[in-house]
Amino acid sequence: MKHSTNLPPLDGLQAVLAVQRAGSFSAAAAELAITHGAVSRRIGVVERWAGVPLFERHGRGARLTIEGQRFVGLIEQALEVIASAAAGRHDRRGLEVVCVSVIPSFARLWLLPNIAALEGSPPDFRLDCDIDHRFAHLTRVDVAIRYGSGRWREAIATPLFEESLIPVAVPALARLLGDEPSAKDLLRHPLIHDTYPDAWRLWMERHRQSYRLRPQDRRFPDYDLVLHAAAAGRGVALLRRPYGNAFVENGSLVPLGRTAIANPSRFYALAQLGAMRRPVQILIERLVFLSAPGNRSRRRP
Prior knowledge:
By secondary structure, the protein is of the alpha/beta class.
């Protein structure tokens, strides 16, 4: 089937499907509330696009040619895909679905504990979480939560937590190290970090101490595992406040000293360029609100 690269007009496709259902041009015209001639012209446009005749006339009716049957089958498949995509934007309660791509640590540390506040009470929408280390393309999800410098030119990047970094350890180790341990004091113990040790390098540089990864230091693939390892007494971790505050709030970890440094990286909510669905706008507004200091317990917008 030869055709041009431009898509056929939608009203022409509607006419093709109407004739296929009704069995004649006249019945299709009545169904579409247009004239017999208008149906014929619309069908003609699609046939010229397809490069083959779609109908053969018989008496007062019309039936699909072999090529027409194939063509209508393709149209029906395409419509099913579109309908399926539209249905996926709503759950069984009729609520719109907002798909969010997050890394596992963000899901465990922050998204799931706050999901009720993000959805609203009663819910304004339902969150559908795509949890993976890999970056989900924004054509597949509504919002992607990612950590970095904010230089995403292909998306609208809304900053979330403004983070600071401070060493933490279990209470027993904190007592051993004292009120204001130095960088050299900390280096006497294993340092715990995730895949990238950049935060520890930055903290050490600010305290005039060089740092390179050592055999005794521990590395984990997700940031929440870093905090769990520190809470198990495996060494000293850097707390990213307020993102990891739950471990201090529940007493598992204690800040070592009172001086924190600013983290140049942070989480961003990424969305496609252009107009957003209202539920997506609401979600981003709530993400910003709840990630601000002191707002976790306050009423969301």
